[in-house]
Amino acid sequence: QVQLVESGGGLVQPGGSQRLSCAASGFTFRNYSMSWYRQAPGAKRDLVAVINSAGDTTTYADSVKGRFTISRDNAKNTVYLQMNSLKPADTAVYYCNVMIRYNYWGQGTQVTVSA
Description:
By secondary structure, the chain is mostly beta strands.
């Protein structure tokens, strides 16, 4: 079965950096685009970044362009989200996602940006 397990969240100060990881299993990872979403309290879940199967094409939400970088390691079945210059507005639960006929989600990892 498809499993996505996020890690790397935590408390970080404004202006700081954090790297999230998502370990995938149960499907042929190298064949699928992967995405990161986030959901702040009381808000809907929003797309943050997408990376294609080969890892050579990425797309970002305007709010994170120039600060976040999505990448993947197909040998390790893992997708990453490097977050720099973090702002309090980046505080959210971050979810890994893959679409394989259905949407699959990880359990999420909390990122809190606060002084």
